């Protein structure tokens, strides 16, 4: 639909970065209209995870199988902001922007070994962000280390008169303190997040992380978010309803793809939208319209809103009981090969993969995925921290401490290593950042 | 432009089949050609073009009609409701369209403060309860003039509810009796206007102009408290005057700033309400009453013939003078209402609830707005009656004619003449001339100053009233002369010289002894002849009453 579309204005977040001297290097690939968890359903084709070509992964694969066609079993990045993740992961750029509605920034961050930040809803302007679900979208930030994410957030956060859902309070750029003492922290582990689908590797890393905090003096307790099991269904009802509404503007009349039919306005609309949207988008529009019908509105949309309130309240209760931050997995497992991912359809995959991430969107809370370690296959696994609303700074401070503890390795890509070997010899951190 | 003169309206709400003393005696031209077999009967009263002429039949019942209105008024503001593009009538197509208006992805609505204030002002003027919290919703439908595929409106919780619109008209013998009627205001809501589409059938295309897309509208919903076209038209007229007095809308129907949809049904008194139809987009004051009355009669006819009324949408064909179904509105529309997620609830305050230290730029205080409300038409009319001893029906005419009140007030400022005289000259003479040539008050060749000067001359008795009329006609020709100049040019001054006048009278009496005889004999009309002769002799420059006095004195002696 928007293939040839060149927007005539800059999004606020883009403009803010440009105003601070950033260079826009390019636009990245994604799932069409941010609908998906693999970045496989875009008009420009699927996105390949740079870790597919990493030394760490390749070496592990060689051990397992022989005569492998180098490129046939490449891995997905996760999604929907997979292109942005791939760009940052491959050292193409300092940082990238994505969007996060149900986990679309944190999911690929985890699969690509990056820091993926979803700020609090209302902290960062959505003006210029093509909406998926207006009440849950936020611009997402992808970087190689937490300090970088904090820098970008400091530039982007703050009230925007063009976005009426941003908070009024002024926000100043900040520098993250380097926490040394975590004994005053209380980490919550939501028990409902321990699902059978969780891979054993992720589960054990999650445990390890909890133990890490405990051993350093923090209080680590099990907490309960009782409405977690309703979350995914509730998310789907609200998401598709808003999608149906937000996609109504794409009619080919003012901009974007327009079909050749001109028999009547209706025929033109129908053909334009059939041609311009893929199956995933069309499926969600149809579902959404169903939920918004007069006879269904109360039972689906309003009900879902009520459940949403309950989910948000779950978090409030937990945070009010003294928990500073929640620690959960980001994804069920490490990145899977493309050929395996596409065995299930988009909707199924989304339902599976959003499970840990979408609650934060429902509740508007800040959440960040931090890479922890490599799997047995040599692929990144990340864990998620969820913080109190508008306590993004505190959240990142804790994430930064964690990052320092785990010392996640830098991706070893051949070309990179040849160019920057001197840099990497001296520095184990994943970021080529301003600190040097 | 000009509002219809206030007329008699339906006494009560009864529509007899043989509509004898029925609703408005329309004199709006010959019955037009919308033929339906029912209309050819002869009634006992002639000249009933719409309210039909039918033979009373066995088992006839009386009918009552109910009319509700949805009125859309464009808010008078510099920019649109949710975006910064300008609001302007008749600008080049698509020259006032912001990214948001064109529904470019990623754009978000930002509420216009002025529009909210306009809604609050209007709500207060209509005695509504202002909701301190109101919500915005999306109403979805696909149409080329709606770029986003939805309109942002207030369906769940509008900004103002439960008010009333008092409208009055003059009835009775000489239209001297003022009757007040009230239509309840169900609600007032803020919403976006759509763009304009022009269908070019020749080239099989539709042209879309988005200048109007996103302009702020006030939708005023009136309950079905009206019972005929005239009542509806009067209510709309009063609303127009209120909006114009408040400055919240220019409410000019010709420029599309005020559009009316009517909901009409008929039933037998005492029985439940009938099925209603909606007549959409009545864009002219002239056709408003016509269309409503036509539809009422159509429904009566239909039901009388054993048919049934469909709950449908119709439009008014002004050429044929009848309502026709709108094809593309067949089938019920489900607008899939959904809360607008990009706009938080709209919170208004009053002096009590205003948070301390609140930035006045960011909040609206209802009490403040109430204090600053301009004078409403009903108050203005009352003041005119009190201040100038004017008849109520005159106060209506003064306000109903655009610019007439201001004209009147300007004349009053510059003249010592009695208000009654001024009123008479303005309402009868000036207005008469304007109507004859179909001019607006603003186009009057006679300025308030000129009329004031003329009235001063009259008041000083420098000229007679017939001379004054002559001067007025001369002024109307707009040749740049002042009244004084005209008077002196045409030698219209009244003779001030008493002696000279007496001599003339004497001369005339001398010259017409037989007429003098007649007078002395007691023929009352004879003296008029003498007066006439003297007048001629004075070249009409003498006051006839003075002449009569002198003659009578002389005759008596």
SSE diagram, text form:
The complex is a heterodimer of chains A (436) and B (557).
Chain A: H1 12-19, H2 55-64, H3 82-89, E1 95-100, H4 106-111, E2 115-118, E3 138-143, H5 146-156, E4 186-190, H6 200-215, E5 219-223, H7 228-246, H8 265-276, H9 279-292, H10 294-320, E6 325-329, H11 338-341, H12 346-353, H13 358-363, E7 367-374, E8 380-386, H14 392-406, H15 414-426
Parallel strand pairs in A: 4-5, 4-6
Antiparallel strand pairs in A: 1-3, 2-3, 2-7, 6-8, 7-8
Helix pairs in contact in A: 5-14, 7-9, 7-10
Chain B: E1 64-74, H1 113-125, E2 129-130, E3 133-134, E4 137-140, E5 150-153, E6 160-171, E7 177-192, E8 196-200, E9 205-209, E10 216-226, H2 229-246, E11 258-267, E12 277-282, H3 285-304, E13 313-317, E14 322-325, E15 338-339, E16 346-347, H4 366-371, H5 377-388, H6 392-400, H7 404-414, H8 419-436, H9 448-459, H10 465-476, H11 483-489, H12 498-511, H13 513-521, H14 526-537, H15 544-556
Parallel strand pairs in B: 12-13
Antiparallel strand pairs in B: 1-10, 1-11, 2-6, 3-16, 4-5, 4-15, 6-7, 7-10, 8-9, 11-12, 13-14
Helix pairs in contact in B: 2-3, 5-6, 7-8, 7-9, 9-10, 12-14, 12-15, 13-14, 14-15
Notes on the protein architecture:
- The complex is a heterodimer of chains A (436) and B (557).
- Helix content of chain A is 41%, strand content 11%.
- Chain A contains 15 helices and eight strands.
- Chain A has an eight-stranded mixed beta sheet, with helices on both faces.
- In chain A, strand 4, helix 6 and strand 5 form a beta-alpha-beta unit.
- The longest helix of chain A is centred in the C-terminal third of the chain and has 27 residues.
- Chain B is an alpha+beta fold.
- Helix content of chain B is 33%, strand content 18%.
- At the A-B interface, helix 7, helix 8 and helix 10 of A face strand 9 of B.
- Chain B: Its EC number is 6.3.5.-.
- Chain B: Belongs to the GatB/GatE family. GatB subfamily.
- Chain B: Allows the formation of correctly charged Gln-tRNA(Gln) through the transamidation of misacylated Glu-tRNA(Gln) in the mitochondria. The reaction takes place in the presence of glutamine and ATP through an activated gamma-phospho-Glu-tRNA(Gln).
- Chain B: It is found in: Mitochondrion.
């Amino acid at each position: 639909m928007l293939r040839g579309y060149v927007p005539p204005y800059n999004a606020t977040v883009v403009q803010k970065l440009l105003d601070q001297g950033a260079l826009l290097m390019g636009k990245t690939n994604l799932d069409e209209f941010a609908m998906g968890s693999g970045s496989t359903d875009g008009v420009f084709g699927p996105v390949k995870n740079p870790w597919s070509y990493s030394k760490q992964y390749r070496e592990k694969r060689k051990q397992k199988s022989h005569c492998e066609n180098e490129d046939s079993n490449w891995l997905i990045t996760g999604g929907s902001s997979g292109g942005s993740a791939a760009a940052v992961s491959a050292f193409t750029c300092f940082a990238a922007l994505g969007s996060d509605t149900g986990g679309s920034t944190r999911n690929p961050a985890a699969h690509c070994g990056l820091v993926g930040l979803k700020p609090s809803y209302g902290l960062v302007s959505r003006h210029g962000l093509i909406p998926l679900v207006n009440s849950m979208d936020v611009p997402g930030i992808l970087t190689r280390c937490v300090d970088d994410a904090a820098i970008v957030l400091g530039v982007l956060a703050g009230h925007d008169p063009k976005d009426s859902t941003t908070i009024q309070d002024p926000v100043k750029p900040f520098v993250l303190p380097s926490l040394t003492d975590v004994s005053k922290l209380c980490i919550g582990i939501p028990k409902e997040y321990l699902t059978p689908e969780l891979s054993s590797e992720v589960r054990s890393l999650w445990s390890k992380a909890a133990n890490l905090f405990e051993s350093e003096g923090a209080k680590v307790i099990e907490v309960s978010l009782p409405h977690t099991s309703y979350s995914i269904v509730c998310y789907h009802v609200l998401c598709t309803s808003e999608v149906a509404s937000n996609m109504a503007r794409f009619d080919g009349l003012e901009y974007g793809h327009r079909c050749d039919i001109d028999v009547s306005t209706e025929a033109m609309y129908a053909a334009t939208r059939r041609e311009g949207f893929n199956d995933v988008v069309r499926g969600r529009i149809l579902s959404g319209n169903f939920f918004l019908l007069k006879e269904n509105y109360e039972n689906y949309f309003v009900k879902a809103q009520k459940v949403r309130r309950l989910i948000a309240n779950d978090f409030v209760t937990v945070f009010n009981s003294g928990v500073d931050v929640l620690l959960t997995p980001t994804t069920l497992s490490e990145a899977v090969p493309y050929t395996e991912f596409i065995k299930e359809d988009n909707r199924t995959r989304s339902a599976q993969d959003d499970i840990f991430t979408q609650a934060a969107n429902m509740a508007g809370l800040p959440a960040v995925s931090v890479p922890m370690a490599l799997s047995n296959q040599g692929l990144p696994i990340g864990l998620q921290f969820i913080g109190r609303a508008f306590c993004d700074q505190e959240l990142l401070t804790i994430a930064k401490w964690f990052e320092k503890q785990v010392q996640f390795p830098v991706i070893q890509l051949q070309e990179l290593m040849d160019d920057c070997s001197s840099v990497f010899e001296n520095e184990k951190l994943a970021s080529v950042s301003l600190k040097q | 432009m000009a509002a219809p003169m206030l007329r008699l309206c339906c006494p009560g709400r009864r529509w007899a089949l043989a509509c004898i003393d029925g609703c408005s005696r329309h004199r709006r031209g010959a019955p037009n050609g919308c033929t339906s077999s029912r209309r050819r009967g002869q009634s006992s009263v002639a000249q009933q073009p719409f309210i039909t002429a039918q033979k009373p039949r066995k088992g006839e019942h009386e009918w009552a009609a109910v009319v509700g209105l949805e009125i859309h008024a464009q808010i008078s503001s510099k920019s649109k409701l949710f975006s910064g593009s300008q609001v302007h009538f008749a600008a080049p197509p698509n020259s006032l369209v912001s990214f948001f208006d064109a529904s470019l992805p990623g754009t978000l609505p930002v509420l216009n403060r002025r529009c909210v204030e306009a809604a609050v002002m209007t709500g207060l003027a209509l005695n509504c309860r202002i909701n301190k919290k109101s919500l915005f919703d999306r109403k979805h439908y696909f149409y080329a003039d709606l770029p986003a595929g939805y309109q942002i409106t207030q369906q769940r919780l509008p900004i103002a509810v439960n008010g009333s619109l008092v409208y009055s008209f003059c009835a009775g013998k000489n239209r001297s009796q003022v009757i007040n009627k009230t239509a309840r205001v169900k609600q007032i809501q803020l919403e976006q206007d759509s763009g304009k589409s022009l269908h070019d059938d020749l080239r099989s295309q539709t042209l879309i102009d988005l200048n109007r897309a996103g302009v702020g509208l006030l939708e005023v919903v009136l309950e079905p408290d009206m019972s005929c076209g005239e009542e509806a038209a009067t209510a709309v007229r009063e609303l127009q005057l209120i909006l114009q007095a408040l400055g919240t809308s220019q409410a000019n129907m010709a420029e599309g700033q005020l559009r009316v949809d009517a909901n009409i049904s008929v039933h037998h008194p005492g029985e439940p309400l009938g099925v209603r139809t909606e007549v959409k987009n009545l864009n002219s004051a002239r056709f408003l009453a016509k269309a409503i009355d036509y539809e009422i009669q159509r429904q009566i006819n239909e039901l009388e013939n054993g048919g049934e009324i469909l709950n449908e949408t119709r439009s008014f064909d002004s050429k044929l003078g009848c309502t026709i179904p709108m094809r593309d509105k067949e089938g019920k529309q489900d607008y899939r209402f959904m809360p607008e997620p990009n706009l938080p609830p709209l919170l208004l305050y009053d002096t009590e609830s205003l948070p301390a230290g609140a930035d006045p730029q960011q909040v609206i205080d209802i009490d403040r707005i109430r204090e600053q409300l301009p004078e409403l038409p009903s108050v203005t009319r009352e003041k005119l009656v009190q201040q100038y001893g004017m008849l109520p029906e005159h106060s209506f005419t003064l306000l109903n004619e655009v610019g007439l009140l201001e004209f009147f007030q300007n004349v009053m400022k510059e003249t010592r003449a009695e208000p009654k005289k001024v009123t008479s000259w303005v309402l009868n003479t000036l207005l008469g001339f304007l109507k004859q040539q179909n001019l607006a008050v603003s186009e009057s060749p006679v300025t308030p100053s000129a009329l004031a000067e003329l009235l001063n001359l009259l008041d000083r008795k420098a000229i007679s009233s017939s001379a004054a009329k002559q001067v007025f006609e001369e002024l109307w020709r707009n040749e740049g002369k002042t009244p004084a100049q005209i008077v002196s040019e045409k030698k219209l001054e009244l003779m001030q010289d008493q002696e000279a006048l007496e001599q003339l009278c004497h001369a005339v009496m001398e010259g017409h002894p037989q007429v003098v005889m007649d007078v002395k004999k007691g023929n009352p009309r004879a003296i008029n002849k003498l007066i006439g002769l003297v007048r001629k002799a004075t070249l009409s420059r003498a006051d006839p009453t003075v002449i009569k006095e002198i003659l009578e004195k002389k005759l008596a002696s």
